[in-house]
Amino acid sequence: AFRAPSAEEMLSAFGTFDGTPPNGSGQYPGQYFRVQNLSLLPEKTKTLSLTWDWRPHRQFNLITNAYQTRVEGVITTRADATPIQYIPGTTLTQTESKQNSGQDEYYGIDLIPQWQTHLGGSWNADLWGSYSYVNGNFRETLNGPKLELINIASNKVKLGVTMRYQDWLTITPRLQWIDQTSTGAVNREQNDRIKKTDSYTTASLHIGMHKLAGERLSLYFDIYNLFDERYYAAHTSSSSSVLQAVPQQPRTYMGTLEYRF
Residue 85 — φ and ψ, nearest 5°? Predict the structure, then answer.
């Protein structure tokens, strides 16, 4: 598999002149400029995966998936060894560009159980969940130090139950826990991340009513972040000091009407 470079990665170019007068040759000095790289290649991925679907009886099954992935030619932002002079009338003393210099290696396991049961009367329920573990490292250059993975939580847990009354009402509460996550802030001298977003737990509720108005109408009501938790998602920025943790939405309500003609 592969990931092609985005237009932003290939074409973005920016920087700021600080108002320094031109030098003796009439060239305006500049530094810290991003340069286009039209020669970027796709990142290439190789994955080995083993999956086991265990069904001891018709009401229960457990899916286990173990995997190992290696990504070559990862696109990273690197300083150019020789500043690229791409703006006429200027002398750029330092430029950087996106390059195929990185390498990712990670491994993990996913556990996905599901159990169906009868609650009594016209009520049935599907209980489901998942646990995900991932670990690994990345290098900004092929021979560079191994760094901790960013924007990936090592542990994730999701639990939920879908309760059904006959075939017209469903109620689904969900719960998820996300482990602390490293951001893009780097302390290269100590070879670690200097900022992590805290772990968090959120809940949601989904209610659906189906087959109304001659089986043409369905109504849905959702509450996201049910308990109005304040939490942050890890974020990678081109600067180690800009927006490393992004605030997430507070409690949110959504209603949906679906009519089949």
Answer: -95, 90
